[in-house]
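BUG: 3D viewer hangs when loading the predicted structure for this chain

Environment: internal workstation, default settings.
Expected: structure renders.
Actual: progress bar stalls at 90%.

Input used:
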Amino acid sequence: MSVGVVMLVHNAFDRAEQVVRHWAAAGCPVVIHVDKNVKFATYDAFVKSVADLPDVMFSKRHRCEWGTWGIVAASQSASSMMLNNFADVRHVYLASGSCLPLRPIKDLQSYLEKRPRTDFIESATTADVPWTQGGLDFERFTLRFPFSWRKHRMLFDRYVDFQRRFKMYRRVPEGIVPHMGSQWWCLTRQTLSAILEDPDRAVYDRYFKRVWIPDESYFQTLVRLYSQSIESRSLTLSKFDYQGKPHIFYDDHLQLLRRSDCFVARKIWPHANRLYDNFLNEENPLKGAEPNPGKIDRIFSKAVERRTRGRAGLFMQSRLPRPGYENGFTSAPYSVFEGFAELFEDFEPWLGRMTGTRVHGHLYAKDRVEFEGRQKTFSGALCDNAKLRDHHAQSFLVNLIWNTRGERQCFQFGPMDSQLVSWDLAKDPNAQISVISGAWAIPLFQSNRNFSDIRAHAAELQRIESEHLDALRSTWVKARIRIWTLADFIETPMEALQTVLDEMGAKNLRRVTEAPKMADLTGFSQFLQNLKNQGMHPYLMGDFPSDAGPTAQRPSRRKPYLVR
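Structure tokens produced before the viewer hung:
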């Protein structure tokens, strides 16, 4: 025999019996520690169930609770019994009742025989590990923790604050440097016996009894004093979530566990019949393979990321994340056009032909939602009711983009629309916003209304657009934004349209040879002058030419001729 197993058990005794018999059948002696919290009747029944196995013993019982000294005391008692009663044991493997061997025990024995002086234990300083939980890194070694974190959380926190306030720090015993790591180890007889028989053990035990979660630091620290060769890794596959709680393996993890090539895994669900039936009764074809938990690390990393960050643009129906903590506001890129539909009469169908995208009207118009083709309902059962949209305007946009992911959405926006999403558009990295400022004046110019009403309406629209432009120019902006004044745009409309299409990144896009029909702006400059004369200063249009710009005819030049 070369491997002895120390097993810590506190529940699922039927499964623990199965695993004990599996270890014993391979010639491994087993010393079992049963939590003192377990009732005597249950304990006695478990002892009787394995009484026929000659190399199975039970150690002194200790009361074990997460984060307390009892787990270390249990490991010490069982390990001492293992070393005293089984002289042929070269390595001692610490496991729990929820551990399951994934490969034949002979593979583990052969692996350890080739490494007779190597200790397998995860051991790193607090500065080198990123997975400590609770905000207590090195402080777990310098403060006292007499209260249970789970049962007396208030006393635990108050006493920590009390020690910090009055600077009641402890000294680390001389000669040791605190290390941390997984509590599941495999140590050589020489190293383990040196730790248990250390003349200063009483000093170390007294110190670590008041350390928080000592089972993750006691052996990990003392092994550095005596080990000749340390591999800072555990032979037991165990994964933890972002809260520091162990992942539980179920039947549907069968293929995942096979891919790991690890010798032992925890934590196994007691009712995972398929896992126990497969791994306790079959021969692993990957004999001699090096344990490689990295094969499944990527999957667990993705699972943790999905759990903590979710998917961009997808929120729970039961609760919404705090603003700024969501993993992306929307799920896909989209385009917003402001002022284009007012300047060009057929802009929506033209843009759809040029880019092959879905082009909507004003989705946030105050009277209704203008879906493409003015549909009453759209993908995901979104309806054109403005009241339902404005009940949560941000969620309306999020749902629209999520329901149509894979197809780029474009829509119009302006000061006549509801401004509930103004800041959300500006802060969304998926948004591409193109603005022609002052274009809202064109519908007013074309309307047949009293000029006093037009002036009041124009002043209000200019105020709204000015506030919206301030948002688009703020330091919080993440969207891709391009802004033209109306005067600048109509000077070179083809070049500006080409720029917009290029920024959209449309596939198979050719140079713009066909432009949408521009509105007739004859008399528009005089309209702006009339607004000025009425006391309103329309500055968002830019320096608009007095001859109405694009519709004015350029003076023809005489053709050159040659005089002979």
